[in-house]
Please model this.
Amino acid sequence: MKRKFSYISYIVLFLTITLTGCGGNKATTFSSATALSSSTPQNYEEKIENYLLQPGDNLDIKFFYNPELNESIIIRPDGRISLPLVDEIVAAGLTPAELTNVLKEKYAVEVKQPKLTVMVRSFSMQQIFVDGEVNRAGIFNLTGPMTVLKSISLAEGLRDTAKTEQVIVIRRGVDKKPIGILVNLKSIIEGTDMSQDISLKPFDIVYVPKSSIANVNVWIDQYIRRNIPFQPGFGIAP
Model:
């Protein structure tokens, strides 16, 4: 009990970031790691293309025919960027390709057929959280490709009491509801099903249970509510 409460602040931080804005509907989506791996790009370059820009990201904006407009800029804490000739633009929450299209539309007023690209020079601090039956639960920096097995290694491995067949990855879905992904870590360790070793996204929570979890959706809801001191306006109905 003492160890769990020593990580309450971490859990509050992560779930606040990942689940704020979920709305009053507390429904949770559940999927298997095998299904996810068959529908989600695992190539790191493809993941970068689908990456949602965050405050603190450093961007290079390159114009092919108007180099005088080139900019290297950091997304401000309010999620916006300021550029010559155009109004402030909300960049956070867009992919680089989406921001490119927005800029093309904005600059079309000032430049004839603007051709440009947005590149992410460096990422703001991205992190994941590993909790449950691991030797060192906590927050870990996400500096490159990261899988479930690698995250367990960062947490100094599993405890003897770990239920490796039912590891859960909690992440924020595209509809801003928490998604529960069931991962069979045992099959990864034994090398029988490496498709279970899914790539992690920023602010994912990897939870290794001590015993079987009969209903993943109910468990996620209870886990979140047990560890977050809810306040009005948090985004999830009490």
In short: Helices lie at 2-5, 8-19, 33-39, 44-49, 96-107, 148-154, 185-190, 216-227. Residues 2-44+125-227 form a domain with the Outer membrane lipoprotein wza fold like fold (CATH 3.10.560.10). The first helix runs from residue 2 to 5.
